[in-house]
Write a structure and sequence with these properties.
With 254 residues, the chain is mainly β. It has helices at residues 26-37, 96-102, and strands at 18-22, 51-69, 72-91, 106-107, 115-116, 124-131, 139-150, 164-170, 177-178, 184-185, 190-192. 7% of the residues lie in helices and 32% in strands. The protein is globular. The chain folds into 2 domains: 9-57 and 84-192, Pnp Oxidase, Chain A (Roll); 195-254, no CATH class.
Amino acid sequence: MAYSGHINSDNYTVGMAYIFLHPTTGSTGLASIDAQIGSAAYHTHFCVGNTVNAEIAPDVTYLDHFISINGERRKDKTVVTTKSISVTFTFDEINATNVKRFLYGFESTAASPTFIVNASPTKEFSAQIYFTTQVGRDFIYKIPRAALKSDGNLAFDPEDLMNANMMLDVLYDSTYTQGSPTAYDAPYGYNKMPLYLEMSTAKWVNSGKPKSDYRYGNPEPSQEYTLGRCRDYWGGLALLMTSLSAHHPSGMMI
């Protein structure tokens, strides 16, 4: 029987991610990044600026077990012995903050752009990979704890624009959780993507308040789900109704 499933071309995705870094690990640093994404200072301070390449690379090492049957070795078990994940990216905004990160700098004076080179090679960060696009699906990867490492050279070239490669080596964080009211362990962080089936086909929805630079929402009351007017304005996609929405207790239309 032929497969009759639907192929959704809206899932074909093109775009580039923003990389946000905060010098405080865990929920505190990630909350500060969220606050900046929702503010007018969107591309300053924590963001590395323009990135020309970004890649997420999970790395899992397996150990296979075999049994012998009639002279043949047959695999009957696979176990995981090592898990890790890293994010590599290339930035081309050669400013003081990015160069300081690349050269593992430590500021000798709080208010000065001068820094000591190779003074902080083991500095840990929280990070967020923030991907939005008009072609395909958005997603956010929140990383509670990672070591930031230089990956290659900072080359000077009179005939090309400068750029530099760095890597976020994601570290295991046994204290980090995600979810409410039930919290789940998320030692390597978590990925957040909009729900396609429960999302309006119009990506940015706001029928009662004009769209601003970073705030979106749907202020109109739902006839079945909302106990009042929904004012969930946040820096992202506006969920209209989800499977987690609460029905009105009376069952009446609002």
